[in-house]
């Protein structure tokens, strides 16, 4: 099995790479801030964050602030470890 096979398919999309990168250096990030940082649509963020949540790489918190719904994201310990491993394989791939 080569290095390329060890890359995590859950992080192949640039949007998921972006979400994980933002969450690795921030605690909780809300939907609007994430959407703005990555310059993506609501639907794009919703579908990719949902896939990352399903894989247990991120935690999604939905709450109401006043009468407005607010969705926020946070990386899980599993997500942090998986993303670090993915990045280390990317580094090895670049050096080979």
From TrEMBL:
It comes from the Bacteria. It comes from Flavobacterium hungaricum. This is Transcriptional regulator. Residues 15-94 form the Winged helix DNA-binding domain. InterPro entries: WH-like_DNA-bd_sf, WH_DNA-bd_dom, WH_DNA-bd_sf.
């Amino acid at each position: 099995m080569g290095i390329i096979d060890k890359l995590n398919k859950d992080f192949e999309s640039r949007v998921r790479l972006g979400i994980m990168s933002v969450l690795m250096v921030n605690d909780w990030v809300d939907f609007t801030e994430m959407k703005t940082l990555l310059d993506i649509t609501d639907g794009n963020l919703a579908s990719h964050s949902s896939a990352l949540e399903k894989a247990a790489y991120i935690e999604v918190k939905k709450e109401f602030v006043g009468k407005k719904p607010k969705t926020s994201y946070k990386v899980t310990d599993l997500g942090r470890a998986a993303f670090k491993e993915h990045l280390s394989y990317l580094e090895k791939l670049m050096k080979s």
